[in-house]
Predict the structure.
Amino acid sequence: MAREIMVKGAGEYELWFGIGRSKIRFSKREFCLVVGLKFGCLSNIINEKYEPVDGGIHERYFNNNPDLLVKALHEAFMKVEFKNKKDALKMALVLFEESILKGQDYRHKLPRWLLRLVEDLRTFNRFS
């Protein structure tokens, strides 16, 4: 049986469990090792005022709709003729982020900063 225990000097983002006679730590590091996701510095794009990227997927496929839902993104991804392969990749990444990683309902409004972030794939890959 495992149970959470309090360990003196444990970090703020650590959980400790007693398993048998052993103390086991579960922190951000172990989480990232298990799920394969990264963590670190977050792009400041989240806090900036949203400005659509000229020629970006939000403009090109959704007319900069401020109330874009996960459902609309999914439908577009399945039906649209993409102008280039990068647009398909960008849309797939946003869809994966919202639907799989975050588990958002199809009625959830997409965060506009995410549509801006995906336009810079290098920064997006550091974020996700």
